[in-house]
Write a structure and sequence with these properties.
alpha+beta; Metallo-beta-lactamase, Chain A; Histone H3 K4-specific methyltransferase SET7/9 N-terminal domain; 2 domains; eleven-stranded antiparallel sheet; nine-stranded mixed sheet; 38% strand; elongated
Length: 408
């Protein structure tokens, strides 16, 4: 629930010299100035909701989860939205269409797009029922169909097949064009859908790409990214999400093509404004010269890391899952276990306490696989200093230790 309206008013302006020049605003007809296009990538965690405004016409792509409904409604009202020309529920998943019922009930909606998919999903059934109750009929996507949003035009790029194994690939993918600027919105479309879009040889070049599936490595393939050739990428993703999005793989693909990145988990609501020639952002782009911020990576040795990064190294809170089944959850500094952390071995042993440069160092508790446990001081992975060793049978040894030996 929104308690502070300043969340939506504290806006700074940043431009990028690669495309921002002092061109005059786009005009149409009898010297009438066209109002700017504004796109809001709303921060609702690991979900999608994108508001597009142009000359009093509005479009909403996805509505987040049901729990996000109040936030989205308040955000739209704060922007002065009373009517939505189009609402797109990209595909039947709770973090994309969960709030669509509330949106339809709250605003005057002209047309609703959902994919033509047979789903036993209760949420999807409720969406269909809500549409009927409001006297609306679902519009199913047809690739190549064009629609106007004020002086902007948008086109459907996907889905390109009637049936998919993965619901993600039913995602309605669209391209919006306003003057010389263009934008692509991908929902949670995966590599299969991207490949089919490429096979259609559609015009998919765009200045801004909304990254598919919150930064999952199965989306935003190299081939698709190369064809879109965006200057900017926006990732709608939840802070410290359990999936580890965005993945290192996707961030690396963006790095290789020198694409500027924006992230809702790090930068909150992201707003881009277009006058038909220039793009202006409310925040500066995220530092993606190396892996920074939250994300995940599957390492070459089979291990997997989910957590915070700094300059390409594990840094901050994170989870390192080893190929052999061991797991560390805790603090990292410069790629090493350092600070408080918990380590679980596959043999049943467990340590919780302080680490220094990948070694057990400081105070902590170790539980051995035979049921014994030690609580006290450690140095260089060994019991060193004062501590108490408790045997499984209840006997205890308390005093000083040196290199795992009790010396009283």
């Amino acid at each position: 629930m929104i308690t502070n309206s300043k969340k939506f008013t504290n806006i700074k302006t940043y431009t990028n010299s690669k495309i921002c020049t002092k061109n005059k605003p786009m005009k149409i007809g009898n010297n009438n100035k066209v109002k700017n296009l504004k796109i809001h990538y709303i921060d609702i965690g690991n979900a999608d909701s994108i508001l597009i405004e142009q000359s009093g016409h509005n479009m909403l792509i996805d509505t987040g989860t049901n729990d996000d409904s109040t936030l989205i409604v308040n955000y739209l009202k704060h922007q002065g939205v009373k009517k939505l020309d189009y609402v797109i529920g990209t595909y039947p998943h709770k973090n994309h269409i969960g709030g669509i019922g509330t949106i339809i009930k709250t605003f005057n909606v002209n047309q609703v797009f959902i994919p033509k998919v047979t789903s036993t999903n209760e949420l999807f059934k409720n969406v269909v029922t809500t549409l009927k109750n409001k006297g609306l009929k679902a519009t199913y996507p047809v690739v190549g169909n064009n629609y106007n949003l004020g002086n902007a035009k948008w086109t459907i790029l996907a889905p390109n097949k009637a049936e998919y194994k993965s619901l993600n690939n039913y995602s309605i993918v669209t391209k919006l064009k306003f003057g010389n600027n263009s934008f692509i919105f991908t929902g949670d479309a995966k590599d299969i859908s991207e490949r089919q879009i490429l096979q259609k040889q559609l015009d998919i070049h765009a200045d801004v790409l909304k990254i598919g599936n919150h930064g999952n490595a199965s989306s935003t393939t190299d081939a698709f990214l190369k064809k879109v050739n965006p200057i900017y990428a926006v990732i709608s993703v939840g802070k410290e999400n359990s999936y580890g999005y965005p993945t290192y793989e996707v961030m690396e693909r963006l790095r290789k093509q020198n694409i500027s990145v924006f992230r809702t988990d790090e930068q909150k609501n992201i707003i881009v404004t277009s006058d038909g020639k220039n793009l202006t952002w409310n925040v500066s782009s995220w530092d993606n010269t190396k892996m920074n911020g939250y994300g995940s990576r599957s390492l070459k040795n089979g291990d997997k890391y989910i957590g915070y990064w700094k300059n390409g190294l594990f840094n901050g809170k994170g989870t390192l899952k080893y190929k052999n089944g061991d797991e560390y959850i805790g603090s990292f500094i410069s790629g090493q276990k350092q600070g408080q952390g918990k380590y679980k071995w596959t043999n049943g042993e467990y340590y919780k306490g302080h680490w220094l440069k990948d070694k057990i160092e400081g105070t902590g508790t170790y539980i051995f696989k035979n049921g014994d446990n030690y609580e006290g001081h450690w140095s260089n992975n060994k019991m060193n200093g004062t501590g108490k060793y408790k045997f499984k049978n209840g006997k205890t040894l308390e005093g000083n230790w040196l290199n795992n030996n009790y010396i009283k």
